[in-house]
Amino acid sequence: MRVLGVDPGLTRCGLAIVDEAPGRKVILKSVMVFRTPATDALADRLLQLDNALKEIIKEYKPDVVAVEQVFSQHNLKSVMGTAQAAGLAMVNGARSGCQVFTYTPTQVKASVTGSGKADKRQIGRMIAKICGLSSPPEPADASDAVALAICHLWRGGADEKIRKRAVS
Question: Which residues are catalytic?
Fold first, then answer.
């Protein structure tokens, strides 16, 4: 299974492609942070992100898109941009025939570190260890995107396999 993990954001959107290998092994194929200038018009920024998502889906052909659920923050403007970016990821995934799943930050942290209260450093260290990297992907948005993809493989992927067996 190939998963596109998306840590949504308008200024910085983390994108990671991971493959599942036997034995819960994770193979990191690509990780990046797509950026849009805060000075650009909102519609232009959304279009830039939409095009980037289309390209990464076209190039890597994921089976699943895993997106972080937007949660309420104090900064309404920031929440709106994050929600818009998440929506684009979900629409692009669905349009390309991918299954789309959302995970809360707590679910992602618990899947990767064993604790839903893990901090960014702990997540980064575990991502590096899981993927066999000498250091975590930078910035944190990149590590978060990898964590989302791993969360799906280890949490959602297992749930999906159970559902498929039950139907068979």
Answer: 7, 68, 141
